[in-house]
Amino acid sequence: MTAAVIAFTRRGAELGRTLADSLGASLHVPARFAPEVGAEAYDSLEGWTEEMWRGREALIFVGACGIAVRAIAPHVKDKFTDPAVVSVDEAGRFVLPLLSGHVGGANELALKVAALTGGQAALSTATDVNGLFAVDVWARERDMVLTDRALAKAVSAALLEGKPVGFASEFGHPCPAGLTEGPAELGVWVTWETGSGPFARTLRLAPRGLILGIGCRRGTPAAAIQAAAEAALAGYEPRAVCQVATIDLKQDEPGLLEFCAAHSLPLAVYPAAELAAVEGDFTPSDFVKGVTGVDNVCERAAVRVGGTILVPKQAKNGVTVAVAGRNML
Questions:
Q1: Contact 162, 156 (CB under 8 A)
Q2: pLDDT at residue 236 in the model
Q3: Domain 3-124, what fold?
Q4: Three-class SS of residue 106?
Q5: CATH topology assigned to domain 210-325
Q6: Strand partners, 55
Q7: Contact by Cβ (8 Å): 147, 133
Q8: Cβ neighbours of residue 192 under 8 Å, at least 6 residues apart?
Q9: For tag attachment on the chain, is the N or C end more exposed, with fewer CB atoms within 10 Å?
């Protein structure tokens, strides 16, 4: 988690330095005493907050809670995208997670800060207060996509009311405490699949573990790659894709790089000899072998990253795509 700590006084800066060093964060203080405490100077709180809001995953305010509230108020939009915000007094006695307690990790960060200061983290989210299963935290800790916000709220509400919430996993995850593997009208389903699930109301959690193996002709536009990827992923959660893989001949392919950038996906590339050495049953092509030196790019590349083929080679408009999945346990 990338974090920034801001303090407003010299005393606050002392605590801020401890927190920044322990959490791997940057420390920011007013310009008038920044050199003497070895911190980065800021000119205005408004400008600092706007900059850090875009560039950090967590903000820690050392000082009065009201300062933090006023500073972040213009920027608060969505708990699924807002950074975690924590406020701690200069003595380190009370640590308050102000924003994105579950999804953004502010509750967990507040507990870490309290452990460093010897203070008390004041968590106020209902599931934490009542010691209940928090589906958004459980999903975040396992890098899963929470596919439906309304159903996530319904899960929490049902647990708070003492109603049963079911659980099922395509990957063999053990049932979390507080949920049931028995019959339930509302439940959580861990899966890569889309569509209806095992419960009348099913909240799908999709682990980020799908791999796209891609091959394409030289000069293929990003739009064609996007269309081919969407076709190959039919029936699967596209937000669960975590990696793209191909042959090293395509490492500078503009359309492929644009596709990866648009979805913030890392691109792994392998030489033909390394792909040819991958063991498995693949769809061969003499034409592809003549051009690239290996009989199949997309399937072999997806498996080379560490996946098992779920969707074999699909061809569309000069693009080949295979979908593989990692082991999720």
A1: no
A2: 98
A3: Rossmann fold (3.40.50)
A4: helix
A5: Nucleotidyltransferase; domain 5 (3.30.420)
A6: none
A7: no
A8: 170, 206, 207, 209, 210, 236, 237, 240, 310, 325
A9: C
CA distance 321 to 226: 10
Determine the Cα–Cα distance for residues 21 and 30; give it in Å rounded to an integer: 18
Confidence of residue 209 (pLDDT cuts 50, 70, 90): very high
**Residues 168 and 145: beta-carbon distance below 8 Å:** no
| Cβ pair 212, 195 in contact under 8 A | no
Q: What count of Cα atoms within 13 Å lies in the side-chain half-sphere of residue 253?
A: 26
pLDDT in tens, 261-291: 999 999 999 999 999 999 999 999 999 999 9
User: Domain 135-207 belongs to what topology?
Assistant: 3.40.1390
Cite the residue boundaries of each domain of the chain with CATH code 3.30.420.180: 210-325
Q: Determine the length of the chain.
A: 329
Q: Is the pLDDT of residue 79 over 90?
A: no
Contact 86, 106 (CB under 8 A): yes
What Cα–Cα distance (Å) separates residue 198 from each residue in 139, 147, 170, 235, 283?
19, 15, 11, 16, 33
pLDDT digits (tens, 9 = 90+) for 141-168: 999 999 999 999 999 999 999 999 999 9
Q: Determine phi and psi for 247, rounding to 5 degrees.
A: -85, 155
Q: Quote the CA–CA distance of 147 and 314 in Å, as a whole number.
A: 26
Torsion of CA 180, 181, 187, 189, to 10 degrees: 130
249 three-state secondary structure: helix
